[in-house]
Predict the structure.
Amino acid sequence: MFNEKEIPHKEPIPHWTKAVAVILLLILAFQCVMSLRQKSPTWDETHYLGIGKYLLTHFTWNTQGSILHPPLTFFMHDIPLLFFPTPEIMPLGDHHSRFWLGVADVKKGNRILMSDRYDGETLFFLSRLFMIPLSIVLGIFVFLWAKDLYSSHAGLLALFLYCFSPNMLAHARLITPDLSLTCFSFLSIYFYWKFISLGKKPRHLFFSALCFGLALASKYSALLLFPIFIFIFIINTIVEFFTFSCNFGVVRKNVLNLLFLFSLCVIPILIFYGFDLSPYFDGLVFQLKKSEWGHAAFLEGSISWEGWWYFFIYAFLLKTPIPTLAFIIIALVLGNNLKSILKKREFFLIIPILSYIIFFSYTHQCVGLRYILPVYPFIFVFVSRILNMWIKPRKVVGSLVVGLSVWYLVGTIRIYPHYLAYFNEFVGGPSNGYKYLVDSNLDWGQDLKLLKQYMDAQGIKEIYLDYFGSIDPAFYHISYKKIDENTSLFPKGWYAVSATKLQGVYSLKREGSYAELKKKKPIAHIGYTIFVYSID
């Protein structure tokens, strides 16, 4: 085993460090709560709403959308709905194929939000609120892992990067499964690292398996954890075998431990499905079929159903703050890399990062950076190693960290509350984001509420509208007419077009989509996602 002085750090956490960590987590929660109130439902959130209540009250997977994802986040965000007299959700008839159980049903979500028996905005706020504790839990363990690997100071740096990450903040307040997957995937690998590093204590293996199971119950892409664990196991075995005189008896025991983890992780998902996994496998088949079909995607003016192998690398470079990219370069280039990676088992951090990026780079689902959201917590922990690097003079390291951190903080404060629309300075910031990426990278229908506020402020009674979202504009009392996106004739009046629509990603006539409107200068750019025009 490693020397105790090398891994992990067992010294108690200073009181001031705990206080700073708590303050950072409170700021995280504050940012989430205050920003989520200003944003309308994203495209996916509308059709997720209500599925969890139906499953909890009927415990049968026979309603539209119920197999699209595993049920954990459906259950979580629909807990408030149990206390509201929401409209009844109807099951699909026996004449429908299982395929329809994976198809989105936005009408259901609109009926729930627009019911006159309660305030739909309050209901939706509470549903989003139930997801925020996951972001706090994840932040705690980001701090702990960096502290265990390096130092308390490193823990605070990792937590700071996490709490002010625009990409983490964007998804921490949504009723989508991306944050849940990110949280439990990270915790599962963290506890396995503790199991390997701290004398193989059974409780760490148990917690690793439990979190693995919760990740599986969050999103189908959690299945990627199986090869990730296997790769980690192989590298760790090689390191121990050649470095620490590990014998074949120990290797055999480690194999059994991994098999036990794989067996135990199935229990949570069995419980969630009532020990009938047929809906899980139906959903998995549906997702695999979707992946084969491809998905309309946009990248710097081009539209494709096949996607691009470099899409996620491209999106990562444009939507990750430049200070984070700088921290990554410093941590890789200036650190004592190979020795540290082996001694501190930093490959537990590196393998998940590479696995997610490589896997999704070879799929046809080039939709959004959120597909590789799980890489960010691992990155934050890894880059915190720079506080332990022996670079002389030390003041250089301190000044660099402070300078990059201030830049990072200012960037996040400036983008509030439009975290989903964040783009870094490489492309001129979020105002230029629509030229490079759209859909859930920028415009997911989240700014309809702000459009209504703009209309009221400008005294606009009615508007021509084409927005990329699923919530009915009537929910915000918007009077509108639908735009014919293929026309070159625009009557006099006010127009509002979402960036995704403007770029023609889902248009039947993509080449000429809004060609004439694009020539005009917008009067407003609401939330960086909705373009407002006035045509005289």
